[in-house]
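Contributing new records

If you add data, match the layout below exactly. Sequence lines come first and carry their own label; structure lines follow with theirs. Keep one chain per record. Anything else will be rejected by the validation script.
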Amino acid sequence: MASALILIDLQWWVVERYAPDGGMAAARAAEQARQSFRAPGDLVVHVRHLALDGSDGGPDAPATRFVDAVTVGDGEPVVTKYDRSAFAGTPLDDMLRDHAVSDVVLAGLVTEGGVASTAVDALRLGYQVSVLLPAIAGNTPEGHRNTLDDLRDRGVTLQERM
């Protein structure tokens, strides 16, 4: 079975509003993970969060673009979400199943939001779930720690490196 790296909400507005202290470091680590994942040919999926009403300017607005540290490589799909979880109302589950993915590795922002809700939904859908610790950042240190404890208790693997 295949693996997929899911990069969550590595956008300017998320870094600036929710992860100003660790967001860019997480983005750089996520890019390193993306490059190593691409080498064996596993699936890399980029997830972006947009406002349903378009009030954020849409996908080409400066604030909603992916940070410069992260590259969307050729053939890497971009999934747009309008909720916290990358699975909510998106084709992500179908995409993963089409690629026979059984294991997902999550990276991105923020631990207490998009990362946690995506991890919980992935577990519910039957995936083996890992979170790449250097490639995530939380809104607050306490929230980050508490969320990781909860995810570990639910069966998510916390990885220090790829």
